[in-house]
């Protein structure tokens, strides 16, 4: 793998980072033990498979041109043992200890002179369950790309890749000579595309200005100042129940999950004695612009929608319908329009602007949205590592400057796993929010008649 310039959005994520605001995403994968497989076996397997993924051997370095730009290049002194380490958990409940430690590890920025990723094997007793915490810098991957990279450590994907490699027959197809100069039609097409991109970016910029807010009194916890600490909590939802609600009410499963998050926030705010906010908190809901199966671009391909989470609405069904209506409106406009499409705007800025302007832009995130809510797709098939079955995957999203909470969801094994990442001092009761989200799904399910004809 040679040198590759960072795409504009990747460069923005790279320069948005600070010690108090690390820009890595992650996942906590939990496994059941298998007979005869110990921590040393798993650690060795993680190292071998991670080292075989070319993307994980790349680091970021500055380049002379374009001015202010950076590029991915292979790290000549790459040592997988600096990236894959074992951490022994304290005695006690396994999940409690694993999530506590994962929160602490998510606080720590990745070392920028090395390939920006880390894997931690979190284990207790040699014959007990274990977890793997994966940290990937957002410049390295968006959610879909992170799944594709991380999937390479699993038995099924690794075996398929090895089989494909053994069976592959390389054919050297002659390429006809071609001038490096584009033809007149290509020049015209490139110019029209560029005009369209700039026009779209101007429209997004105007929408950002129109949707920016000066009144930030949404929730005392969500608007608390950043402490640089991180806390992690997890929740699990029944995917069949989510689908039952979707079939009864219409819309998508994601609409149901967004309504569950809104209702969970409402329950949590009321339980902690907070007065409900005068305006609904705004969620930034990322949307992938990466086509399924597309391999042309390794960089982030993202846009997003803005969604008011209807926490002031007391009726659960009305909350769901409000979310569905708002998301339908967002989808009608498309992911390349509106204030949520700030990533589209970032794609149009030159490298030098990202290098010096990213910190200023990061501080402005707070006036646009209050909480990140993202869904991460996972493979549907059962997965394992060294013969140890994968039980759950809890995704984790980074916190932008001025943000105290990020919610990430993924479906696996008939369950929807929810990963909550929060500022540790702003939300010390994050576990209560996780419980409130689980309770909200139960409450919403009770509104759906058992008999579809009822």
From TrEMBL:
This protein's pathway reads:
Glycerolipid metabolism; triacylglycerol biosynthesis; Lipid metabolism
Which ranges carry the O-acyltransferase WSD1 C-terminal domain?
A: 299-444
GO biological process terms, alphabetically, are: biological process involved in interaction with host; glycerol metabolic process; response to hypoxia; response to nitric oxide; triglyceride biosynthetic process
InterPro entries membership: Acyl_transf_WS/DGAT, O-acyltransferase_WSD1-like, O-acyltransferase_WSD1_C, O-acyltransferase_WSD1_N
Q: Where are the transmembrane segments?
A: none
- The UniProt record lists the O-acyltransferase WSD1-like N-terminal domain at 6-256
GO MF, any single term: diacylglycerol O-acyltransferase activity
Q: Name one Pfam family in it.
A: WS_DGAT_C
Q: Which reaction does it catalyse?
A: an acyl-CoA + a 1,2-diacyl-sn-glycerol = a triacyl-sn-glycerol + CoA
Report keywords, A-Z: Acyltransferase, Glycerol metabolism, Lipid biosynthesis, Lipid metabolism, Transferase
Q: What family is reported?
A: Belongs to the long-chain O-acyltransferase family.
Concerning NCBIfam families, the annotation shows: acyl_WS_DGAT
The protein depicted here goes by the name Diacylglycerol O-acyltransferase
Q: Which organism is it from?
A: Streptomyces finlayi
């Amino acid at each position: 793998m040679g040198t590759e310039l960072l795409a504009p959005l990747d460069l923005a994520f790279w320069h948005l980072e600070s010690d108090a605001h690390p820009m890595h995403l992650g996942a906590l994968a939990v496994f059941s033990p298998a007979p005869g497989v110990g921590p040393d076996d798993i650690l060795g397997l993680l190292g071998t498979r991670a080292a075989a993924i070319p993307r994980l051997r790349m680091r970021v370095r500055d380049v002379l041109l374009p001015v202010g730009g950076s590029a991915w290049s292979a790290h000549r002194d790459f040592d997988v043992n600096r990236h894959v380490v074992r951490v022994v958990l304290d005695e006690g409940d396994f999940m409690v200890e694993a999530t506590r430690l994962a929160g602490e590890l998510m606080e720590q920025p990745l070392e920028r002179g090395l390939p920006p990723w880390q894997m931690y094997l979190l284990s207790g007793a040699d014959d007990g369950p274990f977890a793997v915490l994966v940290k990937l810098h957002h410049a390295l991957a968006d959610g879909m790309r992170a799944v594709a990279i991380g999937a390479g450590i699993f038995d099924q994907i690794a075996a398929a890749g090895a089989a494909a490699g053994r069976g592959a027959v390389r054919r050297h197809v002659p390429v006809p000579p071609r001038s490096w100069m584009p033809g007149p039609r290509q020049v015209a097409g490139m110019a029209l595309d560029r005009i369209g991109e700039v026009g779209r970016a101007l429209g997004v910029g105007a929408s950002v200005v129109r949707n920016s807010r000066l009144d930030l009194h949404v929730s005392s916890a969500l608007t608390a100042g950043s402490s640089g600490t991180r806390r992690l909590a997890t929740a699990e939802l029944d995917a069949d129940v989510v689908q039952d609600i979707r079939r009864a009410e219409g819309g998508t499963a994601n609409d149901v999950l967004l309504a569950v998050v809104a209702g969970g926030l409402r329950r949590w705010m009321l339980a902690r004695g907070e007065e409900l906010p005068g305006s609904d908190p705004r969620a930034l809901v990322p949307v992938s612009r990466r086509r399924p199966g597309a391999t042309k671009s390794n960089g982030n391909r993202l846009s997003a929608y803005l969604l008011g989470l209807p926490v002031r609405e007391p009726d659960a069904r009305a909350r769901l319908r409000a979310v569905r209506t708002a998301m339908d409106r967002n989808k009608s406009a498309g992911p390349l329009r509106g204030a949520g499409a700030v990533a589209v705007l970032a794609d149009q800025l030159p490298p030098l602007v990202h290098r010096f302007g990213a910190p200023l832009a990061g501080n402005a995130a707070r006036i646009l949205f209050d909480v990140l809510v993202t869904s991460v797709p996972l493979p549907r098939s059962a997965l394992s590592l060294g013969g140890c079955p994968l039980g759950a995957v809890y995704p984790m999203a980074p916190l932008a400057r001025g943000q105290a909470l990020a919610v990430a969801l993924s479906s696996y094994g008939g369950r929807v796993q929810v990963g909550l990442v929060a500022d540790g001092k702003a939300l010390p009761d994050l576990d209560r929010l996780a419980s409130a989200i689980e309770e909200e799904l139960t409450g919403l399910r009770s509104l759906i008649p058992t008999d579809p004809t009822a």
